[in-house]
Design a protein that fits this description.
Blueprint (H helix, E strand, L loop, with lengths): L10 H11 L5 H6 L6 H9 L5 H15 L2 H16 L10 H16 L6 H13 L14 H6 L6
Helix pairs in contact: 3-4, 4-5, 5-6
């Protein structure tokens, strides 16, 4: 976790310099090499002292918008949130504890969804609530078949 230094200086240049130091051409390539890592974990990998998760996300959104891959980014963020809050996959039974964890996944996913895709994410959440995936479902990339069904690659 940073102590405020992440916003000092040219953080964008610092972020991309760290990505290149690790052998990646883009922040997206770096993030996709770590598809289940949280935004905080990605930031810590790039610079525990001076990179924040929100900076990583802002960079990912900018790249996704330029390449018309925002829907893929949104699916990828779902993977990150599900892995963080439901590391064993979708619960077999939605008791109170499991329902809370699913709610946390959905809340975080929504919070990290660009405005252009909020409606699509709301529909995907409703679909998952109304017709839950199999117990243990744990997508490991934005290319997961069920995720692609819920959020196809048509850009909003």
């Amino acid at each position: 976790m940073t102590d405020g230094r992440s916003w000092q200086g040219n953080w964008k240049a610092r972020l991309y310099e760290r990505v290149r130091e690790r052998g990646f051409d883009s922040l997206t390539d770096f993030a996709e090499a770590h598809p289940t890592a949280s935004l905080v974990a990605l930031a810590e990998e790039l610079g525990r002292e001076d990179i924040a998760g929100v900076q990583v996300f802002r960079g990912l959104v900018a790249e996704a918008e330029r390449s018309h891959q925002v829907t893929r980014l949104v699916r990828g963020q779902f993977v990150r949130e599900l892995c963080a809050y439901l590391p064993n996959g979708w619960p077999a039974v939605l008791d109170d504890d499991a329902r809370m964890e699913v709610t946390l996944v959905f809340s975080q996913w929504s919070a990290y969804t660009p405005e252009t895709h909020k409606g699509r994410v709301r529909l995907a959440r409703e679909a998952l609530r109304g017709n839950p995936p199999p117990a243990g479902w744990r997508p490991l990339s934005p290319d997961d078949e069920l995720l692609r069904t819920l959020l196809p690659d048509e850009e909003a």
